[in-house]
Amino acid sequence: MHGEPVPRIPPLEGCLYCHREGTTVLSTERRFLGPRRYPLLRCNHCGSVAELDYDPNSADDWRIRYRRVNQDPRYYYVAVHYRRHGWVSASDALDISRRGYAQRMRVFQAESGDLSWLVPPEAELPLALRAGEQLMLEMRAVTLREVAPTTLFVRPNRGTVLDSGKCYLSTHRLLLHGQRQPWAHDLLTIERALYNDRYWLIVAHDAERWVQYVGTYLEDQLDPQLFVTVVDYLALNRR
Ligand SMILES: [Zn+2]
Predict the structure, then answer these.
(1) Taking a C-beta distance cutoff of 8 angstroms, is the pair 237, 171 a contact?
(2) Residue ranges with CB less than 5 Å from ion ligand 1
(3) Are 101 and 168 found together in one domain?
(4) What pLDDT tens digit does each residue of the chain (239 aa) get?
(5) Which of 46, 143, 147, 203 is close enough to 70 for a disulfide, judged by CB 3.0 to 4.6 Å?
(6) Which residues on neighbouring strands pair with residue 137, listed in sequence order?
(7) Of 66, 7, 15, whose CA–CA distance to 38 is shortest?
(8) What is the CATH number of the domain that holds 200?
């Protein structure tokens, strides 16, 4: 409906998805007879398209549903979280957008070697750290499995479970404070590190076997993308 007053609401001032300002366009034509009920919000920068449900008289009361999103890794966090929730209320949408921005900045920092934002864990480890080795991160609920040498397709549940427990990332190694015993793999032995919206997975090997560390995504822990980015940076600089 042309001429309808459009309220000043956050999704119209900047893109919640890519955080550019002035790149979103709202098509206010509403098709009451067609399948589309809500005006579409498009971003000319990232190409995302969302349905926006708002009341022109109430600037705080809106919700959004992303229909098409940009899958570039830099938008990983917002892609995962907007997709997971379907229609998202105003406060949740702003929350996801804010956390997505912070995560993107952290990933940039980690890629460029700025890890100053990490708060090193204080842990009583069963293994002594080496000279110059520093703990960087702690991740709970990690499983260690013995696997066949890495193939093109990896799955989180393949292989035989060796142990599980808290995993520590240091500047030199991955360490697992397992229920059965302590384990450690030098970052130089990492073959692959990957992530998706549910877990991160690292394949490594020592003289005897190939193993994979798998950590399930938990809301209160570092996101899998960010964890793998830090691992990648440290592993690359270990060579
Ligand atoms: Zn955008």
Answers:
(1) no
(2) 15, 17-18, 43, 45-46
(3) no
(4) 455 666 678 888 899 999 999 999 998 765 555 556 889 999 999 999 999 998 878 878 899 999 999 999 999 999 999 988 889 999 999 999 999 999 999 999 999 999 999 999 988 888 899 999 999 999 999 999 999 886 667 788 889 999 999 999 999 999 999 999 999 999 999 999 999 989 999 999 988 899 999 999 998 899 999 999 999 999 999 86
(5) 46
(6) 169
(7) 66
(8) 2.30.29.30
